[in-house]
Amino acid sequence: MPQLDSGGGGAGGGDDLGAPDELLAFQDEGEEQDDKSRDSAAGPERDLAELKSSLVNESEGAAGDAGVPGAGAGARGEAEVGAEALGREHTSQRLFPDKLPESLEDGLKTPECASGMYKDTVYSAFNLLMHYPPPSGAGQHPQPQPSLHNKASQPSHGVPQLSPLYDHFSSPHPTPAPADISQKQGVHRPLQTPDLSGFYSLTSGSMGQLPHTVSWFTHPPLMLGSGVPGHPAAIPHPAIVPPSGKQELQPYDRSLKTQAESKAEKEAKKPTIKKPLNAFMLYMKEMRAKVIAECTLKESAAINQILGRRWHALSREEQAKYYELARKERQLHMQLYPGWSARDNYGKKKRRSREKHQESNTGGKRNAFGTYPEKAAAPAPFLPMTVL
DNA sequence: AGCCCTTTGAAGAGC
DNA sequence: GCTCTTCAAAGGGCT
């Protein structure tokens, strides 16, 4: 099993995994070159699959040794990267030949908008993550943590993001944020500790005990609307999103509600704990602002297409960092919400009708996977990186 | 107002 | 165990 350490001592070890080739392999997704790519990339693909698998399944207890891959990443020159990106360009467009929005095409007129040129990803916070100070002690008031969490991200739903890991995405090219962001949020990130579970004995239904040691849990502006029964001073975790229902029941309304209705509404009003972000989502969060700035695009769909291609253009090492971040996100999420399950949010978004899915499948649009039929039918068992 | 689009990845549901 | 489905972010577009 390949390891993340820069020593290259993993099972993939010795083998360079043929980074450029393997990337080209999934660049060449498409009808004509399918066979060629599949043949040439079979080996690297396996290795890549192992790598990704290892990144995901890496020892859950190894939080302390998550060294960021180091100098080895430099094996690939920028020229290679550029070549890959260029090579991918045509195939990526082939994926969405008809759907490519005009705005995206405009964006692509600038080569760097589609060439995966953003290689200067900042992982400083990823490293810092490993150095989060432990809680200052239960019962103590939080100490400001100025260095790590002096910036609040601004999710669309008006709540802070899940994890301190997110912080690093705002630098060095932070997404423009509303001027009143600090007033709205005033969020300090939680400090990740290796033993948060002892402090966050939460369940999905009840937030339970919240740490006094985590600044954003007790930050005054966020005390409002806390979903923490019995903890008026506590605030929900960033992943917790207030229910969409906005209107508060008037007293007389409440009196008219049946017990069942009230119970149902109470249930519906439970704060939503969002899923932890996966590697690609983390990557998108970081790079979106850059793409927007570079390509002057605004449509997220178009931006995401570009980001998807750039994601593929990333080197293994770069992707590995995001996989590692995502893994830590999941770990933290599990510690924060031990009883939470992804099924808790199932059906909370309005499901698209099956009829539409079927229509999409037959109509050459998106299939039930939310992707294109030919892509979903790709034989590669292991995820988009290895789509052939 | 609220869903759609678009991406990848994780995880639940169902067989 | 495999396939399918849903959700996670984002924000303009569309109904």
Automatic annotation (TrEMBL):
* Domain of life from the UniProt record: Eukaryota
An example GO CC term for this entry is: beta-catenin-TCF complex
> For this UniProt entry, what is the primary localization, expressed as one broad class?
nucleus
Q: DNA binding happens at which residues?
A: 273-341
* Keyword Zinc-finger among record annotations: no
Alphabetical UniProt keywords: Activator, DNA-binding, Nucleus, Repressor, Transcription, Transcription regulation, Wnt signaling pathway
Q: In which residue ranges is the amino acid composition biased (Gly residues)?
A: 1-16
Region (Disordered) residue ranges read: 1-114, 134-187, 343-375
Which part of the chain is the HMG box domain? 273-341
Alphabetical GO biological process terms: canonical Wnt signaling pathway; immune system process
Q: Where in the cell is it found?
A: Nucleus
Compositionally biased tracts (Basic and acidic residues): 35-50, 86-109
For whether the record's keyword set contains Nucleus, the answer is: yes
Q: Please name the Pfam families in this protein's record.
A: CTNNB1_binding, HMG_box
Gene Ontology molecular function, alphabetical = DNA-binding transcription factor activity, RNA polymerase II-specific; RNA polymerase II cis-regulatory region sequence-specific DNA binding
Comp. bias intervals (Polar residues):
146-156
**Recorded family membership:** Belongs to the TCF/LEF family.
By what name is this protein known? Transcription factor 7
Native source organism of the sequence: Phocoena sinus (Vaquita)
